[in-house]
Design goal:
elongated, 0% strand, mainly alpha
Length: 148
């Protein structure tokens, strides 16, 4: 594997955040649609979630992310759950799809936080990304990095 620069984790984290933000926009748009349109668009959003997670896993593998095995297991569970209900949602069970979409959004938000934290810890002593500055988590992590 090629040597990675000290800025690689920061650049990767920024790219992952951008991709996840775009996915959330798409999920939010779908959630705002009336039931028939929601049901018709559900499978394409599931495919977008799958592509986003595959991209995230590739980046994490490249960076040697310690929790990759566990992340892949969580991703597989999420995707299996979503794929299992696609037919039901497409045939009109929009409520089930909306519930699943909300749960997926919550899990993806948690993934975003844990990925940011892991990438931050992968580059000790580096500057905190702007989105983590000034909050309690960054303060705890910054204090943790200062210890010898």
């Amino acid at each position: 594997m090629a040597s990675l620069s000290p800025s690689t984790p920061h650049t990767a984290a920024a790219a992952l955040r951008r991709a996840r933000k775009l996915l959330f926009v798409r999920m939010h748009r779908l959630a705002g649609l009336p039931d028939p349109e929601f049901s018709a668009g559900f499978e394409s959003v599931v495919a977008a979630i799958e592509a986003d997670l595959a991209h995230e896993e590739t980046v994490m593998e490249t960076l040697g992310f310690d929790g990759l095995h566990e992340r892949r297991a969580a991703n597989a569970l999420l995707l299996a759950s979503l794929h299992r209900i696609v037919t039901q949602v497409e045939t009109g069970d929009a409520a089930l799809g909306r519930t699943a979409l909300t749960a997926a959004s919550d899990l993806l938000s948690l993934h975003r936080l844990t990925t940011d934290l892991a990438l931050l810890l992968a580059r000790p002593g580096g500057p905190l990304p702007a989105h983590l500055r000034g909050n309690r988590v960054s303060g705890l992590l910054a204090g943790r990095r200062r210890k010898p």
